[in-house]
Amino acid sequence: MIPGPHDTRASRAGDIAPLLVDIPTTCRLTGKSRTYIYDHLDQFRSALIGRTRMIDYRSIREWVDRQLAEAGHAPATTPPAPTITPDLIAAAEAVAMSPRAMGDARALALRVLDLAGQDGEAAR
């Protein structure tokens, strides 16, 4: 079980990792992967920041890894790269060539075109 941000026990604890997750139980009950657990740790960490003296995030991830290994769970695999479809390329071209596109939107569109092997330089 993952405590919510209202759980003040974690804010008083020096080592919050055991309070965050019972890894074997969470994996068994939910059938979720290490990535799922890490996503929830990210959410919990974001909600808790500022309430604790310090959160040693690396030690939390190491603790999660140890718990998963002891429970016999395989390490999480890297998710597959997203597929760049013709529709995505067309949308990226439209954004990249638009005189109104600025900043991050334009940069993202150009990156998609570069990844797709399209000529992002022509759109610049």
TrEMBL record:
Keywords: DNA-binding
Listed GO MF terms: DNA binding
Highest taxon listed in the record's lineage: Bacteria
Protein name, per record: Putative DNA-binding transcriptional regulator AlpA
Organism: Roseospira goensis
